[in-house]
Design brief:
Elements: H1 2-29, H2 31-38, H3 43-70, H4 77-93, H5 98-112, H6 117-132, H7 134-148, H8 154-179, H9 181-201, H10 211-230, H11 232-259, H12 266-274, H13 276-279, H14 290-303, H15 307-331, H16 333-345
Helix pairs in contact: 2-15, 3-4, 3-6, 3-11, 4-5, 4-15, 5-6, 6-10, 6-11, 7-8, 7-12, 9-10, 11-12, 11-15, 14-15
């Protein structure tokens, strides 16, 4: 309960800071200028944008469905879509995104299926990791395209290369984490155990965790991940779905800018959407505030978009890819609770 209270306070603080950044961005660019651009949105393009968003969620929920099957978790395609939407909701409303959302997403998987918590957590972590893998490639392809067409100045190129380098570091960290997974798991368990004991020491009615139990859970998680890695056909299929999802996500950015009357190079869209993984490192719920500010700045610097158009386009993009999943994923909570109650009654 105490840890949940801390997370709740951090989430509220994160949203307050994020909304403050959004307000500052609007004041800097000009509220009237942005609203005048929003008033000219093409409804046909917006309808196409919504369709692409649902296809994007559908592809990545397909990744969840296939991964769950490998782990022996029974879930229909429709249930997988709803559960994954709820996972996206959690990613978007807690600080540090999936880093802190995965344990809660695992509870959602456990609630909607018959899987135990360790298997549910392994499913969530595996899906997040496999869906992330194509991101650095999109970033590299996008920036190479921009360099090829000469759309990047010397100063901005330094920033762009640094961002691509950060994506590469994240990829390398993921590889090394997998390469030394048992050693990392042992170190992680040794760090987590005293922290949990310290937290639970001040929380009544909660017994301190046993280090052997934590070691067992970490080892079980690693075994699940190895099971997925051994099924190369499923891994390949999930990566295809993940890549398609990133392509659709880039399309949503392009369509959002097109809806406000400005076309950006597809290479820029590919590069920018890959930065979602970088923005998730910011301690803001779903990167709100920081995401918009970064994207507006890069659209102006790399794409030559007027600030008002860039801001309006990014707000449209975030409305479709951030707020829509928040509403959809939050809206399926009663469904998950009903599944939990029906399973308890059974």
């Amino acid at each position: 309960m105490a840890s949940q209270d801390v997370l709740s306070r951090a989430t509220v603080l994160g949203f307050l800071v994020g909304f403050g950044l959004l307000l500052a961005l609007l004041l800097l660019v000009g509220v009237d200028e942005v609203l005048s651009v929003v008033a000219t949105l093409d409804p046909v393009v917006l309808l196409a944008l919504l369709l692409v968003v649902f296809l994007w969620i559908g592809l990545w929920s397909g990744s969840f469905y296939l991964t769950a099957r490998v782990f022996g978790v029974e879930s229909s395609a429709a249930t997988s879509f709803l559960v994954y939407a709820h996972m996206m909701f959690l990613d978007n409303v807690v600080p540090f995104s999936s880093i802190s959302a995965d344990p809660f997403a695992a509870l959602a998987v456990r609630t909607s299926t018959a899987a135990d918590y360790e298997t549910s957590l392994a499913t969530v972590i595996t899906v997040d990791f496999l869906n992330f893998l194509p991101a650095p490639a999109f970033g590299v392809v996008g920036i190479v395209y921009l360099f090829t067409v000469g759309s990047v100045g010397e100063t901005v190129s330094t920033v762009a290369v640094a961002l691509v380098g950060l994506l590469g570091v994240l990829s390398l960290a993921g590889y090394l984490g997998w390469r030394f997974r048992y050693r990392l798991g042992s170190v992680g368990a040794g760090i987590v155990t005293p922290v949990l004991r310290a937290v639970r020491a001040v929380v009544p009615r909660m017994s301190p965790p046993k280090e052997a139990e934590i070691d067992r859970q970490v080892e079980k998680l690693i075994v699940h991940l190895e099971t997925m890695a051994a099924d190369r056909r499923s891994v390949f299929t999930v990566l295809v779905l993940a890549t398609g999802g990133w392509a659709l996500l880039a399309t949503t950015l392009w369509l959002s800018m097109y809806a406000v009357g400005y076309e950006i190079p597809i290479g820029l869209a590919l590069f920018l959407v890959s930065l979602v993984t970088v923005v998730e490192l910011v301690p803001l719920p779903g990167g709100v505030g920081g995401y918009e500010s970064l994207f507006v700045g890069l659209l102006v610097a790399l794409g030559g978009a007027p600030p008002a158009l860039a801001t309006a386009g990014v707000f449209v993009h975030r409305g479709a890819t951030y707020w829509l999943p928040v509403v959809l994923g939050g809206g399926v909570t009663p469904f998950l609770l009903e599944r939990r109650l029906s399973r308890s009654d059974g």
